[in-house]
């Protein structure tokens, strides 16, 4: 049921089922690492090409251009992480449209962790959905987490059990904190309609599936009256746990983090037969050091699951998992935006609490919490934490924007952050910089001019972005915060996307290779860009001065995949814009005029 030895990679959820291919996806998360989001399109491109080799910059570029229009991620405003990069990456600029920052209407936080992925058959005659309900965020955190993956086809009738899920996706556009592309909102509504009609295939042994939106009227979660209960939650509150224990005859186990257990009242802990946490030795197998060549092992606890055992003519196990911690804000106060999914199955088929706590479950990784140890509260640290989180929220709530205008030299653009930065009590340093450049370009945001304008400096067009990193420091040496806001930009240079392209496609060889990626009919042409050997042969022919069969490739694409020629038309336009280098070979430009005329004739 909850097998600690069954592990999966975050990106594996994107792998299409046999005979299907990726179409589009909507994801939600509390926090997000932009670098991890960049991996998703690249992974999809590799899967589509059956590629097993590491992608080069050109294939990364094409993957992001191809899939960024079809993936939307909703994230709590102020919780995008600052990417840990060794050098500037202009490709982050392509993420602006993919990321929609949101807030919870009840004054809490947007906390759900869900992927809804739509797959279609190659001929587009059929489609299906995969729903991945997670307890982890879209980050590289290595905590112990839990995920549920469901798949199903779209039926003709709406399913009553899917109504909360459909409502959740329908409301996503209304939570956005700023303007978004109309296509993103339309996508969420389209997903809501289709998810309402999906018939899910249940995991082995389970007979019932229910979705819950804690705190949302009509879709709230009410725990069942049970004989036994176990709770796994990294964060807990006394009030929420007391409410849960009133729903069961026996509260067998509370599994949490040591610091969370230490913060609970003694009488709350005594409501549970066992209070447990992960053994430090569980961070590496058998306490040994981790092999750097292996998949990183989990450390810490981030899973959230509630187990109940009930009896109605037979013994049943209820598994409720998702984003909600056992806290008042998540379960009782109607503040956070959360999502839970409940599964019910016969205990004889799916196991129960004893199996969870046994040697084949989490038992070998758990140790008893020492209730005799009093919580050590560092008042200075706690005050600093409160100050930095309060400052993060105040900046996130401020109406900020970026003004972009021509710089003092040709090819440079001046970026100015506008908006009145509020007073940040307890913060001794506050700086900001575009994430497409390094922290070396950071400027002080506490000393703007009288009109609330802060100049970032002048940058190349490829570095223009609204993704702005902020760093806040307190007097406490161990307390600081770094985060990114997706700030609207006015005056984005027309050649920005062209400039990003030109940073990657910097010569004729790069152009021709990228052209083959766009043509993409690799199995027929034998010029598979994902195959090192095939492309190496092609490059050898180029080096020997042989004619390249571009005419044949373009003609084949024109007849089989004419839509790809529109992408090539955009590529030619973008690489010609503002470029001082002859990136596009003149022979190709002469050839391309023929196909541009043909495209125009077909569209007429």
UniProtKB/TrEMBL annotation:
Q: Which Gene3D superfamilies match?
A: Endonuclease Chain A
Please give the CDD domains that the UniProt record associates with this protein.
Answer: PLDc_unchar6
Xref: InterPro entries: PLD-like_cat (IPR059166)
This chain belongs to the protein called PLD phosphodiesterase domain-containing protein
Q: Print the organism lineage.
A: Bacteria, Pseudomonadati, Thermodesulfobacteriota, Desulfuromonadia, Desulfuromonadales
């Amino acid at each position: 049921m909850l097998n600690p030895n069954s592990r999966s990679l975050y990106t594996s959820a994107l792998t299409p089922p046999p005979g299907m291919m990726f179409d589009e996806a909507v994801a939600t998360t509390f926090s997000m690492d932009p670098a991890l989001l960049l991996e998703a399109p690249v992974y999809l491109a590799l899967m589509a090409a059956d590629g097993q080799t590491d992608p080069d910059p050109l294939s990364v570029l094409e993957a992001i251009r191809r899939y960024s229009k079809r993936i939307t991620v909703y994230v709590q405003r102020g919780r995008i992480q600052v990417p840990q990069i060794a050098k500037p990456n202009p490709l982050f600029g392509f993420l602006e449209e993919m990321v929609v920052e949101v807030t919870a209407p009840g004054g809490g936080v947007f906390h759900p962790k869900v992927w809804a992925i739509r797959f279609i058959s190659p001929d587009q005659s059929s489609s299906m959905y995969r729903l991945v309900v997670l307890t982890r965020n879209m980050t590289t955190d290595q905590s112990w987490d839990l995920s549920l993956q469901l798949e199903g086809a779209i039926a003709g009738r709406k399913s009553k059990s899917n109504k909360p899920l459909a409502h959740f996706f329908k409301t996503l556009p209304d939570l956005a904190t700023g303007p978004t592309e109309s296509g993103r909102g339309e996508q969420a509504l389209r997903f809501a309609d289709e998810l309402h009609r999906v018939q899910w295939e249940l995991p082995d042994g389970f007979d019932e599936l229910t979705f819950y939106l804690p705190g949302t009227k009509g879709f709230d979660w009410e725990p069942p009256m049970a004989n036994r209960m176990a709770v796994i939650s990294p964060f807990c509150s006394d009030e929420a746990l007391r409410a849960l224990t009133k729903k069961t005859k026996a509260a067998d186990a509370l599994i949490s983090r040591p610091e969370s257990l230490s913060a609970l009242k003694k009488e709350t802990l005594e409501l549970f037969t066992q209070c447990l946490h992960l053994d430090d030795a569980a961070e590496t197998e058998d306490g040994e050091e981790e092999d750097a060549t292996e998949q990183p092992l989990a450390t810490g606890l981030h899973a959230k699951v509630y187990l109940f055992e009930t009896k109605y003519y037979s013994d049943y196990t209820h598994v409720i998992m998702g984003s909600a911690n056992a806290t008042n804000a998540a379960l009782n106060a109607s503040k956070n935006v959360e999502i839970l999914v409940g599964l019910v199955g016969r205990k004889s088929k799916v196991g129960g609490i004893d199996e969870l706590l046994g040697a084949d479950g989490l038992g070998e990784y758990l140790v008893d919490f020492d209730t005799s140890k009093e919580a050590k509260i560092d008042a200075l640290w706690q005050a600093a934490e409160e100050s930095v989180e309060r400052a993060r929220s105040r900046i996130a709530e401020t109406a900020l924007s970026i003004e972009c205008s021509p710089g003092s030299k040709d090819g440079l653009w001046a970026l100015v952050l506008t908006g009145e930065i509020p007073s940040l009590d307890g913060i001794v340093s506050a700086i900001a910089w575009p994430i497409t450049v390094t922290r070396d370009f950071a400027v002080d945001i506490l000393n703007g001019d009288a009109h609330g304008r802060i100049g970032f400096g002048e940058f190349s067009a490829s570095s223009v972005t609204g993704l702005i990193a902020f760093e806040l420091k307190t007097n406490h040496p161990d307390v600081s915060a770094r985060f990114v806001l997706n700030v609207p930009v006015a005056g984005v240079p027309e050649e920005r996307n062209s400039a990003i392209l030109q940073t990657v496609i910097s010569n004729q060889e790069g152009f021709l290779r990228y052209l083959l990626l766009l043509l993409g009919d690799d199995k027929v042409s034998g010029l598979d860009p994902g195959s090192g050997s095939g492309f190496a042969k092609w490059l050898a022919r180029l080096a020997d001065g042989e004619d390249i069969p571009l005419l044949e490739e373009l003609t084949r694409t024109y007849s089989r995949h004419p839509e790809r020629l529109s992408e090539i038309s955009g590529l030619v336009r973008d690489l010609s814009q503002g470029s001082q280098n002859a990136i596009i070979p003149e022979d190709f430009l002469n050839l391309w005029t023929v196909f541009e005329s043909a495209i125009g004739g077909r569209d007429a």
